[in-house]
Structures are given as structure tokens and as C-alpha cells.
Write a structure and sequence with these properties.
The complex is a heterotrimer of chains A (254), B (346) and C (270). Chain A has 254 residues and is α/β, with parallel strands linked by helices. Chain A has helices spanning 45-52, 75-81, 89-92, 98-108, 113-126, 142-154, 172-184, 196-202, 220-225, 227-232; strands at 6-14, 20-29, 34-38, 60-65, 68-69, 82-85, 160-164, 188-192, 205-210, 213-218. Classes of the chains: A alpha/beta (254), B mainly alpha (346), C mainly alpha (270). Chains in contact: A-C, B-C. The structure holds adenosine-5'-triphosphate and magnesium ion (MG). The site of magnesium ion has 3 residues of chain A, from helix 1.
């Protein structure tokens, strides 16, 4: 389905205060791809993601989701297709209970009550949060919040899942769980992360941003071997590819 | 300045509930019409901000006491009158339900006193008049000060009036006014300075926020409706007062002789809410405003009392049986509760 | 500040209690809100010298606490916070109102003291009723009831949002306040100027958060409308609950039970 293709063409964005966050970014992501966007703090990752569902309008350039250009008139359609999980789950969970929050999106889509119910149940089950349904969001742990936040997006059955730093602030166990969850999601996934080990495990493609430009685009393993590139982008290879601190072995290649 | 249920009469509570409900409905319609859906989360979060802001306080120079933001005027500056009124109202609902700050019946009074005046009088008529969009920080400070003082003075006077009409407390009108107005002058000045400081900071950091929120509010229909409803309420209150007054032989004197109100909100010296620390402050605060007791007051009071209706335990003979019966009833009530509890638990 | 911190903690506790499960918890929130309002109006509708007529009204909070299994301590603590205020205000009554109204043998009690006791009782009853309402209904429940009573949706949504973010921002406020106290020495840095920028940055963070929430709402198809879902029903149990209590309140309002009992008892022993 051409619907799941994400096409970004020479995208530029300047914030009102004049900061040039994106200075001409182009790439195409195909159906079913799992893509990580990495880069130093302030490289423009979040800014880029916010264009994918039309929250920020491009200063110049274009974003297309499938055949649909992301412009004012197509926002509803685009937002149905692209599910966005924000970095801070507190921003995403705003209803009194987790269940109501998960139902928020489907209700906005105008689905009948039975269908809403089914989707709430199913998406909570998928993230393993069925028991949290009647809990208020402020009584969840960080990992539970994150899972609930993902459920709120899954319940809209998006074709493309976009996540800003999904593992930030999670303990190792919760991070593992989340990675399992993401692996199961069969559609297109795009996420930003500073967790390069996760990138290595989950993605077949990585886009490196540097000061608002694409510095590299390719398989993560190749990119992480390019020491020059990494240094220029203020990145380091993931731990699993660094030398073992105990025996000094270089990169335990799997 | 939160009023409690214990000190108001149902009539006063009902009148102000009605006025407040009308204003809320009007504001809700207005906010929806403007369809500024961006404001939906903003209002909610700013309401929570008021709570958060009250956890941070500052030292008032020269007094050693500390003060903090009340928030009404700031919300009006940031959100415009209608959205601000809804936000203040929501804050007061939460305070009434969870902090027992002001009762449920008194909620109408509290929303009216603390929401209406800053949002619909102080902000549009005072603040905007002194500091139209794009004013200098000096003007904004002056405007904040004037508007905060005006809003709180009106609110405090409204508290006095509502308590007069309710007639549960016996603090005389004149003493009550002399107590409330100066305290709220002090609170107003603090509130004005704090608001000015925050607005000044925002104007530097995010000029578009301070510049954008205030729209022309004088001309539009919603605003006029609100002012009309205010006038209607004032008329009703006036009517009730004069009705009460004329019903008693000693007229207005009687109505006025029976006044008092609950403690303070937003006071720099006593904090917003209850608590023993604030109580101490409060006690310390009173002597400065020692109640002048005009000569002849005692006589008037006695006269007023003679005319006061002999409600409840008015007859001396029934007092002993009243107390015995009361004690027994209370015991029975507790017993019922206890037994029910046992049954539920088992 | 200390007060707000404890208040937030209390709020948290009250809200947890509302998650309980009892016959009372399960009632439709509308019934509970309605009954509580009738209760409060009945209590405050007494005249200013009424004492004995108020006492039987204690039955409502007591029964609610008993049946719903709330820990009585939470209600008592709320009362302890609020009653000093009522007492403070009520204390003016004995000062200004010295006409004797009651007498026990040679001891005369002035009208001021009677109305003082009346104010304390009123405060205890109304606050008790309100605390119990929240503890067995929860804030979301109260909001739902308000909405079903016709309160505009915009206001209900506002209430829910406010409540949702009190905890988040409350924590932020506490953290900022603590961070400043740790770095201010001998009261320096606690003045108005630092305060203004401190609050200002809290406000900016709040503002950004609102933008992000809005963003999250938009990306889930929000178009300015909130859709209601949960249907609770006002069934026979709710009818019985509401009618029963309202009837009792009316009865207690117009028949002074303690005086009746008192007259009976003292009559028997005379
Ligand atoms: N609201 C804003 N107004 C002005 N400038 C902004 C705004 N948001 C971000 N910027 C600037 O745009 C640039 C890109 O920011 P962005 O948030 O996209 O970075 P990021 O790659 O997501 O960084 P991080 O890894 O820290 O999340 C930064 O220089 C930042 O300062
Ligand atoms: Mg980012």
C-alpha cells in the first residue's frame, strides 16, 4: 500500500525566534520499515517528527504520507494514519483514567461504542496494560505510563507509528518490554532515540541528523562503524559495539 | 477570602450560585464560540499552575512574612476574561471539594467574589485601561497594582455584603468592613506586585503571550451579558437586604449588626488556606486592625438583639432538655454508624 | 506552602479512597451529589441560634463513613484543619452578642455563645458532608455528575484537566521551591525579583506543556469536541438512596428530634 510511504522533500523549518532547526532534510521511508532518527541534542529530531503529522508547518519543502501531501486540509486524514507518541507520557495521558484516555482517539474518529470498547481492550492488552484500565494516569509508574501512552496511539490503528525517545527514562526491564512491543508492531515505525543499542536491535535503517541536515542514512551497523561520522555528530557507537572494558576485545560481533 | 457554608444562608448561597452558574454558562459558550481549542489544555494546566505557584513563596521586605500569588488577575491577563473566569472557578471547585476551603453552598459566592471581579471588572476596566497592548513595564506594573487592588477590594466588599445578608455571624458591619478592606488592600498590593513581576518576565521571555491573550473585551456581547447579570445580582442582593431590613423593627441596623466572614485567602501574612501556622499569623495580624468599637455600640447591639427573632433555643426553660436530647441524639447517631460499620465489616 | 503540600497529599488520599468498592461507592455520582447538596442546604437553613436541631444531622456523614468503609480519621483530620477557622470567625459572636439567651441554674449563656456553637456545628457538618462526598465519589465522578446535571462541557473538561495536572505541576512547584531554598542563603534570593522569574519560568514550562498536550490531542483526532462515553444509570437504588435521605433531612429539619427526646427523658426522670 502506497499509503504507508513517508516522503520528506527538502524540509526546512525555522522557529519564530529565528532558530533554523531543519535546513533541508530529504528521505523516503517505505512500508514496514523501521527507522531510527538519531543525532545530538538540538540536532532537530523532535522538530522533524512534529512535521510528520502536521503539527508544525514546514517553512519550506514538503512532507507526503502516501499520496497525501501534509497540508492544512489533509490534517485529519494524516493524523489518522500517523500515530504519534510523545516523549513525556504526562503530556499524552490527559483523561481521568487510562481507559478513557485510550478511548479518546477512537471516539474522536467517530467510531461506534462497541468498536471503541473493542479497540480499548485490544490495545491495552497489546501493551500488557489491561489491569491499568481504571487507574488514573498520575498513579502509574514511568514505564506503565509509557505503555499506556503507546496504547492510546495503537487504539487508533495507525499505519505509521512515530515515537519521540520511546525509552527515555525507563528502567532496563521496562525498556526491554517496550522493545519487545515495538518489534511486534508490523507497520512502519519511525522513532528518535539516544539509546543506540536499541536502534541497533530494532532498526534496519538509521537517519543521522546534524544541525538540521541529514548527515548519514543507512543501516545502523554501518553507520556505527564510521567513527569519523559519529564524532562529527557528537555520537558514540553503542555499547554492544564498543570494546569490552574487561578483556579489551573489540566489538563483540554477533 | 473563601467563605464557608457555616456562615451563609441558603438564600444568599442560592442567589450567588445562580449568578455564577449563569456566568459559567456564558463563558463556556464564549470559549467554545471563539473555538480557540488551543486554550482547552492551556486553561486546565494554568489552573494547576496556580496551585503549583502557591507552593513557592517570597519574603515581603521589611515584614519577615511571606506571600505568594493568588492568581486571578494573572489568569485574566494570560487568558482573557472568559477563559480566566472558567479557570478560576475550576480552581475554587477543587479547593472546595478537596481542601475544604470554602463550602459547596458557598461555592457560588466564592467563585463570584474571586473570579468575577478580577476577570470582568479589574482586568478589562482597570488593567486594560492603564496598560493597553504593547505598554511599557512601568505601565504594566501600575496597571497590575491598580487592578489587583480594585479586584480584591470589590471581592472583599462582596464578602462583607454576602455575610451581612446571611446574618449568621454577629460581627458588626462597620467592624467587618474596617477589617476586610485594609487587609485586602495589603493583599492586593502584594498580588499586584507579584502579577507585575510575572507578567514582566513573560513579556521579556515570550512577548507574544502577553501581547496575544488580551483581546478587546469591552464591546463584545458576552461581556455585556456578564455585566448585565452582575447588575441583576446586585439588584437581587439589594432587594434581599432591604427586605430583611424592613422586616425588622430596627431596620437596617439589625441587618448590619449581624456580620462576619471567614478568614483570608491570598493573604501575604496568613497564606491561602487553613492550617495552624496561618492561624498564628492571623492572630498576630488582628491587633493592627483592632476593631474600633464606637461609643454606644453596646446599646445598639442590645437593641438589635432584643429584636432578633427567638429562633431555636430562645426559651430558657427548654435549654436543659435541649442539651440532654442533643447529647442523646448524637450518641444514637454514633451508635448507628458504629453498628452499620460492624455489619459492613463482618 | 507546607499547607498546600499536605493538602495535595490529602487530595491524593481522598482520591484513592474514591477507588474503593462499597454499596455507596457504586451508586451513581448524581445521587450522591444531589443528596449532599440537599444535606448542606438543610443544615445551613437553620436559624443562627439553632443548636439542638443541627445535631441529628451528624447521622449522614456517620452513616456514609460506616457503610462505605472510609477510615474516619481522614474526615476528622479535615475537620481539625477547618474548625479553627470557623472558631476564629465565630468567636466574634460572643464578643458582640452578649444578651443572655439560655440559663442553667444560675449560669447564663449569651446568645453569642449559642450562635458560636451553632457555627462550629454547621462547619463540622457541612465540611464533613463534603469530604465524605468526595471520598466516596472521586473527582471524576463529581465532574461526571455535574455534566449530567447540565454543567457546560467546556467547564467540566476544564475541571478534569485541572485535576489531572495538579499533581504534575504540584510536583514541579515543590521541586522548584526546594531548589531555590537550597541555594538561597540568609533569605537572599527569596525576594520579589527572584520570585517573579521563578514563577515566570514555571509558567513558561506550564505553557510549553499545554502546547505539547494540545499537540497530543490533535494527533489523536481532537477537533474541539469531547465525546462522552461512560453511561451510568440512575436506577432504583439511586432513587431509594436519594429519596430516603432527602426525606430524612426534611424530617429532621422540621421536627426537632433532640428536644423531643430531651423532653421525654427529663420528663420520665422528673
Ligand atoms: N519552540 C522552539 N522555539 C525556538 N527554538 C526551538 C524550539 N524548539 C526547538 N528549538 C530549537 O531547534 C533546534 C532543534 O530542536 P529539537 O527539539 O528538534 O532537537 P532534538 O534533536 O529533538 O534534541 P534532543 O535530543 O535534545 O531532544 C534546537 O536548536 C532548539 O534550540
Ligand atoms: Mg527532542
Amino acid at each position: 500500500m502506497s499509503h504507508h510511504i513517508v516522503e520528506v522533500k527538502d524540509l526546512r523549518h525555522s522557529y519564530p525566534d529565528g532558530t533554523e532547526a531543519l535546513r533541508g532534510v530529504s528521505f523516503t521511508i517505505h512500508h514496514g520499515e523501521s527507522v531510527a532518527v538519531i543525532g545530538a541534542n538540538g540536532a532537530g529530531k523532535s522538530t522533524l517528527l512534529l512535521h510528520l503529522n502536521g503539527y508544525l508547518p514546514p517553512t519550506a519543502g514538503e512532507v507526503r504520507i502516501g499520496d497525501t501531501p501534509v497540508v492544512r486540509t489533509t490534517l485529519n486524514e494524516v493524523r489518522r494514519t500517523v500515530g504519534m507518541v510523545f516523549q513525556d507520557p504526562d503530556d499524552q495521558l490527559f483523561m481521568p483514567t487510562v481507559g478513557e484516555d485510550v478511548a479518546f482517539g477512537p471516539l474522536n474518529l467517530g467510531l461506534p461504542p462497541g468498536e471503541v470498547e473493542r479497540r480499548v481492550e485490544e490495545s491495552l492488552a497489546r501493551v500488557g496494560a489491561g489491569h491499568l484500565r481504571d487507574k488514573p494516569p498520575y498513579r502509574l509508574s514511568g514505564g506503565e505510563k509509557k505503555r499506556a501512552a503507546i496504547a492510546t496511539v495503537l487504539s487508533m490503528s495507525p499505519d505509521i507509528l512515530v515515537m519521540d525517545e520511546p525509552t527515555a527514562g525507563l528502567d532496563p526491564f521496562a525498556r526491554r518490554q517496550l522493545m519487545g512491543l515495538l518489534r511486534e508492531f508490523r507497520h512502519t515505525k519511525i522513532f528518535t532515540s539516544h539509546d543506540l543499542d536499541m536502534v541497533l536491535e530494532l532498526c534496519e535503517r538509521t537517519i543521522v541528523l546534524k544541525e538540521g541536515l541529514v548527515a548519514a542514512d543507512g543501516p545502523p551497523r554501518e553507520i556505527f562503524r564510521n567513527a569519523e561520522l559519529l564524532a562529527a555528530c557528537h555520537l558514540e557507537p553503542p555499547f554492544s559495539m564498543q570494546g569490552c572494558p574487561v578483556c579489551g576485545n573489540k566489538g563483540c560481533q554477533r | 477570602m473563601h467563605m464557608a457554608d457555616a456562615l451563609i444562608s441558603p438564600a444568599v448561597g442560592a442567589v450567588l450560585w445562580t449568578a455564577t452558574a449563569g456566568t459559567i454558562a456564558c463563558c463556556a459558550r464564549k470559549v467554545r464560540q471563539n473555538l480557540d481549542e488551543r486554550k482547552v489544555p492551556l486553561m486546565g494546566v494554568l489552573g494547576a499552575f496556580v496551585f503549583a505557584a502557591q507552593m513557592i513563596n517570597f519574603t515581603i521586605p521589611g515584614t519577615g512574612s511571606s506571600g505568594h500569588l493568588g492568581g486571578g488577575l494573572l489568569l485574566a491577563v494570560l487568558l482573557g476574561p472568559h477563559a480566566a473566569f472558567l479557570t478560576i472557578a475550576s480552581v475554587l471547585v477543587v479547593q472546595a471539594l478537596f481542601f475544604a476551603d470554602g463550602g459547596l453552598l458557598a461555592l457560588g459566592c466564592n467563585i463570584f467574589n474571586l473570579g468575577f471581579f478580577p476577570a470582568f471588572i479589574a482586568y478589562p476596566l482597570v488593567y486594560r485601561a492603564i496598560a493597553p497592548a504593547g505598554s511599557s513595564q512601568g505601565r504594566r506594573t501600575a496597571a497590575s497594582l491598580a487592578a489587583a487592588v480594585a479586584g480584591l477590594q470589590l471581592g472583599a466588599f462582596s464578602v462583607v455584603l454576602e455575610t451581612v445578608v446571611s446574618g449568621i455571624s454577629a460581627l458588626p458591619f462597620s467592624s467587618f468592613v474596617l477589617l476586610m478592606q485594609p487587609i485586602h488592600l495589603a493583599i492586593g498590593i502584594v498580588e499586584g506586585l507579584v502579577t507585575a513581576a510575572v507578567v514582566g518576565f513573560m513579556a521579556k521571555a515570550h512577548p507574544e503571550i502577553i501581547g496575544a491573550a488580551p483581546r478587546s473585551v469591552r464591546g463584545d456581547v458576552g461581556f455585556r451579558q456578564v455585566v448585565v447579570s452582575l447588575l441583576a445580582v446586585a439588584t437581587i442582593i439589594a432587594g434581599v437586604v432591604s427586605w430583611c431590613a424592613s422586616g425588622k423593627p430596627d431596620g437596617l441596623e439589625w441587618a448590619i449588626a449581624s456580620v462576619a466572614g471567614k478568614g483570608e485567602l491570598k493573604s501575604p501574612t496568613d497564606g491561602v488556606h487553613g492550617g495552624l501556622a496561618t492561624l498564628q499569623n492571623k492572630i498576630a495580624f488582628f491587633p493592627e486592625y483592632s476593631f474600633p468599637k464606637p461609643a454606644g455600640q453596646g446599646a445598639k447591639e442590645a437593641a438589635a438583639l432584643r429584636d432578633a427573632p427567638a429562633e431555636g433555643e430562645g426559651r430558657l426553660g427548654t435549654s436543659v432538655s435541649g442539651i440532654v436530647g442533643g447529647g442523646l441524639t448524637l450518641a444514637v447517631a454514633f451508635l448507628i454508624g458504629f453498628l452499620l460499620r460492624r455489619r459492613v465489616a463482618s | 506552602m507546607a499547607h498546600i503540600e499536605t493538602a495535595l497529599r490529602d487530595l491524593n488520599r481522598l482520591d484513592l479512597l474514591a477507588g474503593g468498592d462499597s454499596a455507596i461507592h457504586r451508586l451513581d455520582p448524581r445521587a450522591k451529589v444531589l443528596v449532599t447538596l440537599v444535606y448542606i442546604v438543610s443544615v445551613v437553613s437553620f436559624g443562627r441560634y439553632e443548636v439542638s436541631g443541627l445535631i441529628p444531622f451528624a447521622i449522614f456523614p456517620l452513616v456514609m463513613v460506616a457503610v462505605s468503609g472510609l477510615p474516619p480519621g481522614i474526615v476528622v483530620r479535615k475537620l481539625l484543619v477547618v474548625l479553627p477557622f470557623a472558631a476564629l470567625v465565630g468567636l466574634f459572636n460572643p464578643l458582640f452578642d452578649r444578651e443572655p439567651l439560655l440559663s442553667f441554674g444560675s449560669l447564663a449563656v449569651s446568645g453569642g455563645w449559642v450562635s458560636f456553637v451553632s457555627i462550629i456545628l454547621r462547619a463540622a457538618l457541612t465540611v464533613g458532608g463534603a469530604v465524605v462526598l468526595v471520598a466516596v465519589t472521586g473527582f471524576a465522578g463529581v465532574c461526571r455528575a455535574l455534566q449530567r446535571f447540565g454543567v457546560p462541557r467546556a467547564f467540566v473538561v476544564q475541571l478534569l484537566f485541572l485535576y489531572r495536572y495538579i499533581f504534575v505541576l504540584g510536583d514541579e512547584g515543590i521541586r522548584m521551591s526546594r531548589a531555590r531554598e537550597l541555594r538561597s542563603f540568609a533569605g537572599r534570593g527569596m525576594g520579589l525579583r527572584a520570585y517573579g522569574s521563578l514563577l515566570g519560568s514555571l509558567l513558561l514550562r506550564t505553557w510549553d506543556r499545554a502546547e505539547r498536550i494540545h499537540m497530543a490531542m490533535l494527533s489523536r483526532g481532537f477537533q474541539g469536541e469531547f465525546h462522552a462515553r461512560r453511561e451510568s444509570s440512575f436506577g432504583r437504588r439511586e432513587m431509594a438512596f436519594t429519596a430516603g435521605w432527602c426525606f430524612l433531612f426534611m424530617l429532621l429539619r422540621f421536627v426537632n428530634v433532640p428536644r423531643l427526646i430531651g423532653v421525654l427523658v427529663t420528663g420520665v426522670f422528673r
